[in-house]
Prior knowledge:
Elements: H1 29-43, H2 49-58, H3 60-67, H4 73-93, H5 103-117, H6 129-144, H7 147-173, H8 179-189, H9 192-196, H10 199-203, H11 209-212, H12 215-235, H13 237-243, H14 250-258, H15 262-290, H16 293-315
Helix pairs in contact: 1-3, 1-4, 3-4, 3-16, 4-6, 5-6, 5-7, 7-8, 12-15, 12-16, 14-15, 15-16
Keywords: Lyase, Magnesium, Metal-binding
Cofactor: Mg(2+)
Pfam families: Terpene_syn_C_2 (PF19086)
Amino acid sequence: xxxxxxxxxxxxxxxxxxxxxxxxxxxxxxxxxxxxxxxxxxxxxxxxxxxxxxxxxxxxxxxxxxxxxxxxxxxxxxxxxxxxxxxxxxxxxxxxxxxxxxxxxxxxxxxxxxxxxxxxxxxxxxxxxxxxxxxxxxxxxxxxxxxxxxxxxxxxxxxxxxxxxxxxxxxxxxxxxxxxxxxxxxxxxxxxxxxxxxxxxxxxxxxxxxxxxxxxxxxxxxxxxxxxxxxxxxxxxxxxxxxxxxxxxxxxxxxxxxxxxxxxxxxxxxxxxxxxxxxxxxxxxxxxxxxxxxxxxxxxxxxxxxxxxxxxxxxxxxxxxxxxx
Length: 325
């Protein structure tokens, strides 16, 4: 077994990240923050006082308010609750939990979540706050989406759940993925595609299926997922290194695979992030010109994800950075 030690977070100097877009904030973010905290309390997702304090400091509605600043109020409410579920689930079952390093337990958890997502019932569902909260999100989204939109969302959630078993296998074995494997699986494990699948629903429009699944639009969405996830890997590195059972992130992968110091790995990760942003700009240009009004609307929300996620990452208490870009 090749056990991987995470470099000390105290030696990490976080590099600046390139963002050519301005961040906006939904005018109802503060109202939705109160609502989502009450929603988490109602389902018992943060009964532990320390978890509840972290949830309050996270300011989750500011994330959804920045990445979807033009959302309808019902869309912003359900989008914020879903992102809150993802964050709390990640902490409880994935990188910060002993359960997240036991592959068999993670497979069971993912299976139960998939059963709920598909409208079935999972063993012990009534006693598991994450399963009951997931059923609530599923029902609300089903009521506000078309069958095709809902199918896109559920497919992305199932992919996310599968990726959690991939992460658990690496933690259980004490190994890190190689760079190519990591890039592919990180697109799934971060949960961002589940949120991008809701862009239309929370903003009150719908792309035709052939347009949504077109190679050019999928390539742009993949680029945004990489940008958001890699930014998260970089900016959350000190938090992950100090709290996770094992860090499985872009800087850690680069550090291990290429024999870099953590400072060198963070700097390289930032360069890769910045190059991906520039690639997104190149890929976006012909679609902005030729894609039509609804495609341009979707692309505007992809740009909100790039700028909004970065702004929130620098202002949230989740990562302890505390400075708005």
